[in-house]
Structures are given as C-alpha cells and as structure tokens.
UniProtKB/TrEMBL annotation:
It comes from the Eukaryota. Residues 150-301 form the Heterokaryon incompatibility domain. This is Heterokaryon incompatibility domain-containing protein. InterPro entries: HET, HetReg/Transcr_Mod.
Length: 708
C-alpha cells in the first residue's frame, strides 16, 4: 500500500506554464555560465598564459615525431575514417558467393613486346553469363592505336579478399571489388570488352607497370564509357540515388539569381527536400566519402574520360547529374545545414573541367600535384606517377619517367628538383608541410612530402587569387643544387624576424569544402546528445577564444608601417587580402562577427543555430568571409614582426624565426638558421604590404644561402 501524503493531498504534476518557466530558468543559467566563461578568457591573466603557450611552449613539447606519431597524424586527417565508421552500421548487401576451381592450373601472364608496339596493352573480354554462373574472361593483347571500342572500369581495389575466376581456361585470383564489378557488368547474351587495371596489367612485373602507367591517360581517354564502380549497394543506396536525382532536377529548374543563396531550415522544406536531420542526408554524405573519391589514380581517369557513369549495385547515375547535385549543395551552403560534404567530388570535377577545357591557368605542375596530394595511394610514388598523364599535358611538361625501383624519397626529391629547374621558380616550396609529420624521413626540408595527404593548410600557389604576388620583386632567381640533390641554393635578403605568434587556426569550419566538422563526426559515431553538445560547445568556445586572441595581437601593433588602419589590415591579412568586390574586407569581417554575437547572446554557444537567426544576405557575407579566411589561414598562425608588420605563417612558426625573400619566390619564406650556417625551410607566409617586393632592399647585393 502506498503511503498517504502528510497533508492529506496527492502531489500534483507541474503545469505547462511552470514547466516553461523551469526550462527558461535552466536556459538562462546556461547562458549566464557561458557569459562568465567568455569573460574569464578575456582577462589579461588568461590571455597572458595563452600567449606564453603560443610563443614558447611548442618548442619544448613538439620534438620531431616518431613513426607512430606520424602515422597517427595521418589517421587524424584520413577521410576514410568517416566511411569506416559508417560501414560498421551499413553493411553492403552481397548476393554473390566465392567460387573455387578444383584441379585447374593457375593463370600466368605472358610478357608483352613493347619494342614492336609501345601502345600495347591487354583487353579483358567478359563472357556472358547469369547471376549463378562463374566469371569467365579472356585476356587479349591489342594496340591502343588500332583497337575496337571498349569500356574502362574505374574502381578501387579494396580489401585483399580474393576470389577465383576463369581466365583463358586457367584460374586467376582477383580481389573482391573487381570480382563484384565483373558480376554486375556481365551481359546475359554477349561478350563485353573492358579494360581493368588489376587484371590487364601484370602487377608483379615492375617494368610492365612502369610502361602501362605512361598509357593510362590514353586508355581512359579512348574508352567509350568509363564505368565508376562504387561497390555493391547497401541499405541506404536507394536513398542516395533518389536524393541525387531530386537535387539534380532542383539545380536544373532554379532561377539563376537564386543559385548562390544560402539555405535556412525553412528553405529545405520550401524546396521539398528532406529535413536537415533526416537519414537521407547522412546516407548521401557517406556516398561522397566512399573510398573511390579519395584515390589518386581516379583523378586522371575522371579528368580525361569522354562519358562517365556511376554505378553502385543496380543503381546508376550520370556524371552530369552528380555534378549538378553537388553544385546545388555547395551553392546553397547545405553543408552547414545537413553535414553533407561534396568537396571530394567537387575537387575531382575541377580537374575534369580544367582538363576538358584546356584551362591554361590550371595546367601548372605545382597546382596539379598540390591538388592531387589530398588523394590516397597504396604506393607513395603514385602521388606523382598517378597524375603523370596530366603533368605531361601541362604547359611545362616534366621530364620524369615512372620508375618503381626508386625509393619514395628519391622520387619526391627528383620531382621537386625537376620542377624548380624547369620553372625557375620556388612555387613548389609552398607545398612543404611540417616535416615533423612527414611519412618519409629522407626528405630535405624544402621538398614536399606528397604522401601527407591532408596538410593543415592550403598552399598559396594553388589559389588563382594570389597568382599576382611577387614578394621578391625584380630579384633574379639563381637556383642550384648540391651534387647529391639534397641541398637547394638560392639568393635573397633577410628582411625581418617574427615577434609575436598566435594560436593556430585548426578548429572545424562548417562550410562547403572545409574539413570534417564536429557536427559530421558526431553524426557518424552516433554519440549521445549530451556528448554531441559538449563537442559542439568546445569547438565554438575554442574558435571564439582564437578570434579574440588574433584581434588582440593585431591591435597591439598600434600603427601599421604603411599607416593603414590596423583593424582593416587585420581583416585583409587573415584572408590574404582576398578581393570581395565592392564590399570591404572589414565589413565582411564584421558580418562574420555578428554570427558569433548572435550565437553567444541568444543561443548560449551554439554557432550552428545562429544560421537561422540571420537574413540570407547577412549569412552570405559571413560565409564568404569565413570561406576566404579558411582558405588563407587554416593551419596557419597570425604573427607580427619586429618591424611592425602583420602576417599569417606556417603552424610551426615561433618567435625569433627569420623571414627571407628569395629570388624566384612569390611569397616571403620562414627559415631557421642551422649550426652549419645553412638553413631549414619552415614554410611560406603572407605579410600585408610586402607581397609586391616592398621589403627588397634597393641598393644591396643579395646573399647566397643553402637550404638543407
């Protein structure tokens, strides 16, 4: 029996108004706690501690990393992580079973005679069959100069799970992804002619591999159709292809003037698209993060193809539809709302557009390699060899022949040396990342490690907006190399030194083309709502602190050397003086700050919820500024110099480091002097008011230095 209440009456539940009042008090308490926290980080005590850490402590706690740390660093920026997490809950639907062949001898490749025909290759004749019959193929040697029409398969090799097929009457073991693709592509009543790299090239013959690499561009360019195999379908595949079709149609039917307006949550409903939290968006995001979009060989295959069809199990999508859907997501800033990030495909499509249109501004060796490094390869040498066909078509062809007998490091060193010798420019140095995270130990400090797929910055040389820079002015380049090719000699001037340094810009940015946002990560790993809130709050909190610190360091300058207003210089510096047209950089910066003010005042600390509290025009300006800031400053630090200049430089920037301008360099460079009087290269930098040769002495002789 329940005890009777002491006063003789039963306890009542709170009324609706009382519940609302309690909720309001809870929200007010959270907002007040947030304001107290932000007030603390604005105090001189906190700021002094933070600046001390930024200027000094990194020299003590960041020694050269071990191999384990390097691999950990690579994993942290590995886009495949998203797919791996997703596949834990989205298993492919496999309706095929492996078959073995008892008593059948194994297939062995016969050598091709390249002396008679350097365009020789093998073609795969896929014999007809139904779903229940085993795969039968015939390999035939032919010439690309006289062959009949064929289709080429673009895919990833996948896990090393092997299945047996019949090849020329013998048994050949192939990896599972190729085996599944052949099942899907087989016709019921006719032979189909294909080219499939893992089968048509003898992968155990390094000489044949090297020769066939030189033909890859022509192979995919001549193919009637390039079929992109994305693997078997999963439980979310239908959602993906239905949504791609909807987005493509929406892109085709919308008015031109509305194509670049950021969407709000209400706009999604108006456009009859799924709500921002619906499963279809998560499925689509995972589609864009499939392994195929991240592989280096895919770049050339997609760029040169005549016609492309994407296939996932039974579902098909044309290249044009996928491109339209991706552009729709980007133009309406749907990444910020839904977490769908099509940047991997957008980057690939840019390669294709540049190649198909023969864009001379993008036919630059440095640009091709910098953009390709974001992709992955099983063999590190393929970061160069995988785009060799595009490089050979560039305006400055690279006299490099693929050689798989050379070490990874020697391939990268020779590539950098050839680029510098051919171009008489130091642009390739802009791609050099922090060598403490390098995966190849033998590289000199001036050689980019292309194996680091996701450097923490975007090289200035890859942006057309910065192509006019010439920090070395009229200083003629005088470039040479030591006999072993490990040291770079250049002439230049020591023009300044680093004085104050900020924290790095490393927090996530919820914009199209940005890195994985905290919102995306929490969606994938299916954290609890409380942990999601903590993650988002931490990201927003850290970002606001960094903005305050950067502003404070800038304002401490007082007067700028060219007498410009310091806040105007600050807004222009953190975007590398990006041209926003009729709107000033300072006004764009103020638009972005209003997002933070709205988020802090009305939502506690939820930056993503501030989007719905702004007009489309305000949001557009804010997002344009953030995107320009991200491209210029992500992975970099704000700094000031002993001469009173302001700039953004590499993540490993520290107080006391030296700033040089070198003949052949478009930007100033940060160097550190070694005990042997040579220098270590640390990275490029932007210094406001110094990008057109203003710091080059007029009546002095340039010094010759060596960089190890």
């Amino acid at each position: 029996m329940d005890p009777e209440p002491r006063n003789g009456t039963l306890p009542r539940s709170p009324t609706h108004d009382e519940k609302a009042k309690i909720t309001s008090l809870m929200r007010d308490w959270r907002d007040q706690a947030w304001r107290l926290r932000t007030a603390w980080v604005s105090t001189k005590i906190y700021q002094g501690i933070r600046d001390l850490l930024s200027d000094y402590v990194f020299d003590l706690v960041m020694p050269p990393s071990t191999s384990a740390k390097k691999m950990s660093s690579r994993r942290n920026f590995n886009p495949d992580y998203k797919l791996q997490m997703y596949e834990k809950v989205k298993r492919p639907i496999l309706d095929k079973s492996p078959r073995e062949f008892d008593g059948v001898s194994p297939f062995s490749y016969s050598a091709m005679n390249f002396s008679d025909d350097r365009f020789a290759t093998r073609f795969l004749m896929l014999h007809p069959g139904d779903d229940e019959s085993h795969i039968q193929i015939t390999l035939e040697v032919g010439s690309l100069q006289s062959c009949s029409p064929y289709d080429a398969l673009s895919y990833t090799w996948g896990d090393k799970i092997y299945h047996a097929i019949e090849c020329n009457g013998k048994m050949l073991r192939i990896q599972e992804n190729a085996w599944l693709a052949l099942h899907a592509l087989r016709r019921p009543n006719e032979v189909r002619k294909l080219w499939v790299d893992a089968i048509c090239i003898n992968q155990d013959d390094t000489d044949e591999r090297s020769r066939q690499v030189l033909l890859m561009r022509q192979i995919f360019q001549q193919a009637t159709i390039v079929i992109v195999w994305l693997g078997p379908e999963s439980s979310g595949t239908k959602n993906v292809f239905d949504l791609l079709g909807t987005l493509s149609k929406a892109r085709a039917s919308e008015e031109l003037e509305k194509q670049s307006q950021p969407f709000t949550t209400q706009d999604l409903l108006t456009a009859r698209l799924p709500g921002r939290t619906e499963q279809a968006w998560t499925d689509l995001d995972m589609f864009y993060w499939q392994t195929w979009f991240t592989r280096v060989w895919i770049i050339q295959e997609m760029a040169v193809a005549q016609t492309i069809i994407f296939r996932c199990g039974r579902h098909l999508c044309t290249y044009d539809d996928l491109e339209a859907a991706s552009n729709y997501i980007v133009s309406h800033s749907l990444t910020a709302l839904t977490g769908v990030d099509p940047s991997k495909f957008i980057r690939l499509s840019q390669f294709r557009q540049d190649y198909q249109q023969r864009n001379p501004d993008s036919a630059c060796i440095d640009l091709i390699l910098c953009r390709a490094r974001q992709s992955y390869s099983t063999d590190a040498r393929d970061k160069v060899f995988g785009v060799l066909g595009l490089i050979r078509q560039s305006r400055t062809p690279l006299p490099l022949t693929p050689t798989y007998t050379q070490s990874y490091g020697r391939v990268y060193i020779d590539t950098a040396r050839l680029i510098i010798e051919n171009s008489k420019s130091l642009d390739v140095l802009s791609a050099t990342d922090d060598h403490r995270s390098s995966l190849i130990d033998e590289l000199p400090s001036w050689v980019p490690d292309w194996e680091v797929s996701h450097p923490r910055f975007s090289p200035f040389c890859t942006a057309k907006a910065f192509a006019h820079w010439q920090a070395s002015g009229n200083l003629e380049p005088s470039l040479e190399f030591s006999t072993d090719g490990l040291r770079l000699g250049a002439v230049g001037f020591l023009v300044d030194a680093v004085n104050h340094v900020s924290d790095s810009f490393l927090e996530f940015s919820p914009v199209p083309g940005g890195d994985i946002s905290a919102h995306n990560v929490t969606k994938i790993v299916n954290w609890s709502s409380k942990l999601k809130s903590i993650a988002n709050n931490t990201v927003d909190f850290y970002a606001q602190q960094r903005w305050r610190q950067w502003e404070r360091i800038a304002m401490n300058l007082g007067i700028y050397p060219n007498e410009s207003a310091v806040m105007d210089v600050f807004a222009r510096t953190i975007t590398a003086d990006y041209d926003f047209g009729s709107t000033s950089s300072l006004e764009m910066y103020k638009s972005w700050k209003r997002i933070w003010e709205y988020a802090t005042t009305y939502e506690g600390n939820k930056i993503e919820k501030a989007y719905d509290g702004m007009t489309s025009a305000e949001l557009a300006n804010a997002m344009k500024f953030l995107e320009a800031h991200r491209k210029a400053s992500f992975g970099r630090r704000l700094f000031t110099t002993t001469r009173g200049f302001m700039g953004i430089g590499p993540n490993r920037l520290r107080r006391g480091m030296l700033i040089w301008v070198l003949g052949g360099g478009r930007t100033p460079y940060v160097l550190r002097k070694r005990k042997n009087q040579s220098y270590t290269f640390l990275g490029e930098c932007y210094i406001h008011g110094a990008m057109e040769g203003q710091l080059v002495p007029r009546n002095e002789t340039a010094r010759k230095i060596w960089i190890d």
